[in-house]
Design brief:
Elements lengths: L1 H14 L4 E6 L5 H14 L6 E6 H10 L6 E4 L1 H15 L6 E5 L5 E5 L16 H14 L3 H16 L2 E2 L9 E2 L2 H13 L3
Parallel strand pairs: 1-2, 1-3, 6-7
Antiparallel strand pairs: 4-5
């Protein structure tokens, strides 16, 4: 029942994006993964508009780095998802950039960045707030059904990064180093331009 709920949620998410969903499992070894795969392809019949694929987790980890734009939505177990999401952080430059959501069947959720609490940098102004801000955008989209507001937040984050503002974790030459509060202010300013 839980696997079906998770897979249906993934199909719904894929429909709202590029219409591609990839199951990541280890069905060649794990009985639980064979169940995921069986349910995934059964449920795919209810979503003919979604392009589906399935990869073993070791191959998926490699493909995620080699060809990240081939993926849109990935559905997998918590174990594999936890590992792959940390790997995906490499593609953005920092684990501080990625949001996450854990949703129930009614789209109520827990929204948080994928990074931990980082007590070693708490209060220093070094934390990257983007993962937290993008988690708020996910809350707007999925629980509150405020798509326009979610896009406003995401566009503001994108604009800030495109303009070269960087916290210490993603700072490079020829960009502007800002602390946590300064990045928040830049993103808020960008959001205000959409009014």
């Amino acid at each position: 029942v839980q696997i079906e709920r998770i897979v249906r949620k993934a199909f719904t998410a894929a429909r709202g994006r590029r219409g591609k969903l990839c199951l990541v499992d280890k069905a060649n070894v794990l009985e639980s993964s064979r169940l995921w795969r069986k349910l995934f392809f059964q449920l795919a019949e209810d979503y003919p508009d979604v392009e589906v694929s399935a990869l073993y987790v070791d191959n998926a980890a490699m493909q995620l780095i080699r060809r990240p734009f081939d993926f849109d939505c990935i559905v997998t177990s918590n174990l594999f998802g936890d590992i792959l999401s940390d790997e995906a952080a490499v593609l953005t430059g920092s684990i501080g950039m990625l949001p996450s959501a854990s949703l129930d069947e009614n789209d109520r959720g827990i929204y948080e960045p994928i990074h931990g609490s980082a007590p070693d940098i708490a209060g220093t102004g070094k934390a990257n707030p983007i993962g937290t801000i993008l988690s708020a955008a996910m809350l707007l989209r999925y629980s509150l059904k405020e798509e326009l507001a979610a896009r406003c937040v995401e566009t503001a984050v994108y604009a800030a990064v495109q303009k070269g503002y960087r916290t210490a974790d993603i700072y490079t030459d020829n960009t502007t180093l800002v602390n946590t509060k300064e990045m928040e202010k830049v993103i808020i300013h960008e959001m205000q331009t959409f009014r």
